[in-house]
Amino acid sequence: MTMQSTGVERSRSEAGQPEPATGNHELTVPDELTVPDESTGPDEPIVPDESTALAPAAALFRALGEPARLTILQHLFTGEHRVRDLTDHLGLAQSTVSAHLTCLRECGLVVSRAQGRASWFSLAEPERLHGLLAAAEHVLAGTGAAVTLCAHVPAPREP
Q1: Which residues contact 152 (CB under 8 A, 6 or more apart)?
Q2: Best label site of 6, 13, 50, 102, fewest CB within 10 Å?
Q3: Structural domain range at position 113
Q4: Residue 39: what pLDDT?
Q5: CA distance 121 to 101
Q6: What is the pLDDT of residues 47-90, one digit of tens each?
Q7: Is residue 142, in this structure, part of any structural domain at all?
Q8: Domain count of the chain?
Q9: 56-57-58-64 Cα dihedral, nearest 10 degrees
Q10: pLDDT by residue (tens digit) across 19-42?
Q11: What is the CATH number of the domain that holds 66?
């Protein structure tokens, strides 16, 4: 689908359609700005519509903004776990842990596989997630609010 005013192709989320759940979400920030139309004055900056262009990033940071979800991710760095394992570790209700895992799966951060009646969860892309958490630690250290986000996270192996 294209926008008639600028001729720029729109994504499914911009068109109000849900993106398919592929588990392979990448954040992108446009390198070039859109062509001005009649509503943009000559001195006004041209920026993408924040509600659509930044929506994936906002969803990712909302998912990471819940301490219980960060704890789940940290625990999954040690390996694959069942919901029951995570409820025992976190001391939360099964329904609460399941809701957190659903959020993390919808954001493409975790994947699951069924084995009998149990679902086993693991990190979708451990190396990228480790990099993201390490970057957050770096930013927090620079602001004087250092915490240990990656305490249980081994550094990625060199290829």
Answers
A1: 74, 75, 77, 78
A2: 50
A3: 62-124
A4: 56
A5: 8
A6: 656 678 888 888 888 999 999 999 999 999 999 999 999 999 99
A7: no
A8: 1
A9: 110
A10: 444 444 444 444 444 445 555 555
A11: 1.10.10.10
How far apart are alpha carbons 97 and 103 in whole angstroms? 10
Tokens linked to 142: 């620079």
SS3 per-residue string spanning the chain? CECCCCCCECCCCCCCCCCCCCCCCCCCCCCCCCCCCCCCCCCCCCCCCHHHHCHHHHHHHHHHCCHHHHHHHHHHCCCCEEHHHHHHHHCCCHHHHHHHHHHHHHCCCEEEEEECCEEEEEECCHHHHHHHHHHHHHHHHHHCCCCCCCCCCCCCCCC
Tokens of 105: 């799966």
